[in-house]
Write a structure and sequence with these properties.
globular, 3 helices, alpha/beta
């Protein structure tokens, strides 16, 4: 996995939990942390539309390090 992540400008972790557990595991295993987190922890599933808009915001530089999705909350 380290080879896939090395040298990437943006590493975006998209998860359905508050603590970004997968991002922590990736950092622990590779030493490389995600640059941005797209998280939703309302108990509702993410929609493709809200994930699209969050990733678009990250890629255009208009996002915080932690983007929290709230649609349907």
């Amino acid at each position: 996995m380290r080879n896939a992540l090395e040298g990437k400008k943006q590493i975006i972790d998209v998860e359905d939990n508050y603590t970004a557990q997968l991002g922590g595991i990736i950092k622990e295993a590779t030493g490389i942390a995600p640059n941005h987190y797209v998280l939703k922890y309302t108990g509702r599933p993410m929609t493709a539309t809200e994930v699209y808009h969050a990733i678009k915001a990250v890629l255009t530089g208009n996002a915080a390090e932690r983007e929290v999705l709230t649609f349907g909350a």
